[in-house]
Structure formats: structure tokens, C-alpha cells
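Q: Got one fold?
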Amino acid sequence: MTDKKDLFLDEKLRTGGFYELCIQICPSIHSQPIKLYTDFLWSLDNVDGPYDNEFNRTTIDIKNYEHKGLLTVDNKLIPFKTFTIREEDPIETGFNWFDISIYTSAIEHVFGDNYKTWTENPNPPKAIINFFQETIKELYKIYPFQLAFIDFEVSGQYYLDDLKGQITNWTKTKFYIGQGNMKLIAEENKEMVTIIE
């Protein structure tokens, strides 16, 4: 098995864009949900970190834009990042975001070259999809978010409001919402949405 530190520091695994889970949590005026999500994720048994760029353990600080660590899924270890974004311009209409992002090069190195997440017909590892979906359910229990979605390089591309009208989902992004928000979704978009409760 690859040494954890070597895997984390391998620059070749930090290329190609991100396959990611993106969550539109809540309006930016509320910062507590970001802390709840961050604390939960970094407390999971299969999540190791966060670490700084030299692989020294760091403390969790929601003011940091990103945290880096290692994730174990399907008995495989893979480097990943979390991003917290607080839209503040203007803060009254912005949202807090929480992203879990894995470089495509890391996915292909750890799971195999056939797991392309950036092509027209993506083939993400089921273990990563399962981890994202389980995390979505648990985070929703902690604080009911607006919208979650999974895709390649998709952070900030959709908001809950986008699903209220006509959208072109050419990448087949997977969307997740709570039951209470289903009534807001345009009829033609409902087949793209999974209810997580």
C-alpha cells in the first residue's frame, strides 16, 4: 500500500480538475452551518486530516477556504479537499457553500484509468458516489441544506432557484434536495432530482 504521506504529497495526483459534491447550504448571513458540516466531515472514521501542504496535521478553521486530507473508500486511500465558500457580495443575497472535491488524476490513479469523470459519458467509481450520497444524507440531518449536486467541475454552477425554471443539464448532474423543496422544482426538472429524506 502506498505510504499516506507520499500519496498526499504526490503532485501528479493534483491535476485534471475536480469530481465533487457541492452543497448550497444556506444564506451567507448564517455561518454556523459551515462549522457543523466541517466538524462532521473531519470527524468521520474514514477521513484523515486536515493537513497542511507538508503533511503536518492542522486545526479545523472555517475561515480557511480549503482543508486537505485523505479519504478511505472501498479499502482505497485517496487525497481530497473541502472548500467552504461564503458569498458576501452582497452578503444579504449570497449563500454558504460546502464542497468535497477529488482531483480526477487521483481518481484515475487510485481506482484505474477507466474511471473517467470528465468525459461526455463519465464513469465515476461507485465507492465515491456512495460516499457522497451517504454524506449528503448525514449533512442534511445536521442542517437541512438548499441543494446538493455531484458532477465534474460543477461548483457554483447551479442554485436551487435554477431548478425552478428551465435548465439544460447537459452533463447529467445529479441533484439532491429535501422533500420540502420539491414543490419549488419545475415539473420538467423533477426527474433530475433525488429526494434525500
Summary: The mean pLDDT is 89.
